[in-house]
Amino acid sequence: MRVRVTTDQPWDVDVDVLVIPIVGDPLFDGSLGELDRRANGELAALVAFGELRTKRFTSAIAASGEVRARRLVTISTGDAPGVDREVVVRTAAAALHRLAGRHVRSLAIWVEPLAAVLDGGTEAVAGLLARGVVEGSFDPKTLYLDEVPTAPPALDELVLVAPDADLAACTRAAERGVILGEGANLARSLSNRAANDVSPEVLAEEAWAIAEKHGLWIDVIGPDRATELGMGMFMAVGRGSDNPPRMIVVRSGKAGELDAAGRHLALIGKGVCFDSGGISIKPADRMEEMKMDKTGACTVIAAIATVARLAPGTPLLAVAPAVENMPGPHSTRPGDLVKALNGKWVDITNTDAEGRLILGDAMTYAERLGATHLVDVATLTGAVSRALGDLVTGAFGTDPAWTGEVLAAGARAGERYWQLPLVDEYWTEMESWYGDMINSGSGEGGLVKSGLFLREFATKPWVHLDIAGTAYFRKAKPWAARGATGVSHATLVELALAGARPA
Hints:
Elements: E1 2-6, E2 17-23, H1 30-38, H2 42-49, E3 59-63, E4 71-78, H3 85-98, E5 106-110, H4 112-115, H5 121-136, E6 157-161, H6 167-192, H7 200-214, E7 217-221, H8 223-229, H9 232-238, E8 246-252, E9 265-269, E10 271-275, H10 295-310, E11 316-325, E12 337-339, E13 345-347, H11 355-368, E14 373-378, H12 382-388, E15 393-397, H13 400-413, E16 417-419, E17 437-438, H14 446-455, E18 462-466, E19 472-473, E20 483-484, H15 489-497
Helix pairs in contact: 3-5, 5-6, 6-10, 7-10, 9-11, 10-15, 11-14, 13-15
């Protein structure tokens, strides 16, 4: 898809479709009034008819009259005070979904209405819209089906219409947005693929191909080496399946090298390619969704590739422990004790609390490789979705300054997080009769206890992002299909780029 920025007026752009963001109640004065006049009053007629509404992400298609675009599409954003970066990305994605099944090769989006109300102005909006168009083009059905008549259109050209814009700056921002969107879609593609398609070994092969493509160092640790290293928690989960586990390690820059912010940042992602629960088997209802339990790993692999495209050589580490959690003759049993890589003994009381086991060893290993700051991303608990739903990611952190940096990166990315407390008093419920801790606290507060467990494996500043609620949608949204969302990819990229050196 070609992307260009033009300073032409929106009615002068020759494309198949012109997207018009409607902020608040449409006032047909100024440029919007001129657009309506040239469209022979179609927009005002839609308002009078009740078709053009102000509810966020509602849309309408109109004839274009004398406007050069063949069709007009309106996307409502809600009132101006509520327009943030997330809304801008989703406005563009919603436009693609509104055009699903239509024959559209060229699309223009009028930037001005959003730039007038968003901090960062035209340049910020250009990048966010370009990213939103790319993310909005994703449909998981295309992973396996040759023809999907209801898929969003595959564009040849995206035109961002920004009169009086700095063309060079907006073009750079738009190109950056496209790369961010492509990275999110890579994470979504890997996450959505079926468990009989992507085993731990296949995920490692995919990571290897991505690393070679972007000039990244990669190491894949198999079960024998993991056992020799002492990754007892990782192997406790991975040994139960006929598909052996893989600890995937990808690096940009030199071993232990610090970035411009003085960090050797490590991104750790949970990669359970299928989660049956193991011996503590899950209910059958919605178990097919457990192919999505690898989303954290897919996200960190995609994120390091995106950073390599935007700022090659930026020091960064991605660690993705990949396993299947299956019942079998070699599976870990409730009551088994295993020794973690950091030497702590863990009493496994619930084999379905497996993500924290593989993450703990991965976090320890990342520190051994020189990581000074850690962020882990994981579909860890059902409790986070019950607390925050499918639009807000839960966050825990040990260091207030580092947690603030991660949340600030999320704000730049237009992604929503809510920080949750690590309540020390709950730790008594994680104590074991036989070891240092159990892996699953009983009773209330399970979400907090999952964070407390992971904290035992971080000696450096650390943040845990629980994406179990936000990693995938069970129902389509106006801006997204069902399936993996790509959540936290942009946050991790923004966080890493904060340490990139000037080109």
